[in-house]
Amino acid sequence: MILVTGGAGFIGSHLVTQLLDAGQSIRVLEHPCARIDHLPLHRIELVRADIRNEPAVREAARDCEYVYHLAADPNLWRRNRQEFDSINHLGTVHVMRAALDNGAKRILYTSTESILSSRNANGSPVEKLRLNEKDMLGQYCLSKFHAEQAVFRMVEKGAPIIVASPTLPVGPGDRRQTPPTRMSVAFCRGELPAYLDCRFNLIDARDVATGMILAMKKGKTGTRYLLGAENLLLSDWLRVLGKEIGRPLPRWKTPYPLAYLAAWFSEAWADYVSGKIPMATITGVRLTRHNLFFDASASLNELGLHPRPIYESARDAIAWYRAQGWL
């Protein structure tokens, strides 16, 4: 039996589909409030639980030889910032301990490229970096950093854990609209009047799922595998989307100070008035000043992963956005 936490999410739903297609028996642990109607419920065992509920997590991990831990809050804002730590960090500790105590043979933890950004230019292979708390930007990054540190401490004690660090996932299937999808949809709808150019690495979520399966099969315990594809400027990605949908770049390119001010007001409005995720976040704006270009070739070659061209991801994403009635 294989346990997938967060199996109804963007990457998780693709991972579940691929594992089922390979003939695996799957148990999905998903939050009680999460949408699950897109999952093949007749083919999986579903457990509705919050990863902050340690007894429930332990029960979900029972009899599972392999565990893929994807469940997390991928957004850069929460009204209660302390929840980032309780979900992304402490929730990860619950899943790791439950899997180990139940005798799991292999565990894959899903980290993020955003905690690697400030160290990317120092010449060290990203896969071998060990990070510092002072490098983290915002509570989301800090929570993922603490989670990864906890995982590596377990590895030092012999835990059979592999770490996968996807770059920004794009493509079809993001029902909860993580930040890259939320921005892409806004552009396609003509609701992005300006943009703050930045450098990042994109990869199709379907290829991330494939990379995770390969890492579980081939990966070395205690190794971080960077799952990335193409380095692009934000303006390049918007042009790729625009070519598919027939829309030009936004007219205005926002200077950093103005973007930071807009994010500050957006978060204040979300904190005290709307309670809804703001379009611009302070952490997101701050990340634009860091180098999010990555060379994932070492990880891709070791795993044998060949990501699809990013224009295919844009084409499939837009078709899927239309099918959801978002455009």
Q: What is CATH's topology name of the domain at 2-175 and 203-229 and 294-310?
A: Rossmann fold
Instruction: Write down the overall mean pLDDT.
Output: 92
Based on CA atoms alone, the radius of gyration comes out at 19 Å
Report the CATH superfamily of the domain at 2-175 and 203-229 and 294-310: NAD(P)-binding Rossmann-like Domain
Content of β-strand? 5-15%
Per CATH, which architecture of the domain at 2-175 and 203-229 and 294-310? 3-Layer(aba) Sandwich
Q: Any overview of this molecule?
A:
The protein has 327 residues and is an alpha/beta fold. The chain has a domain at 2-175 and 203-229 and 294-310: 3-Layer(aba) Sandwich (Rossmann fold), CATH 3.40.50. The protein contains 11 helices and 12 strands. The longest helix has 20 residues, at 82-101. The radius of gyration is 19 Å and the shape is globular.
Using brief descriptors, characterize the structure shown.
single chain, alpha/beta, Rossmann fold, 12 strands, globular
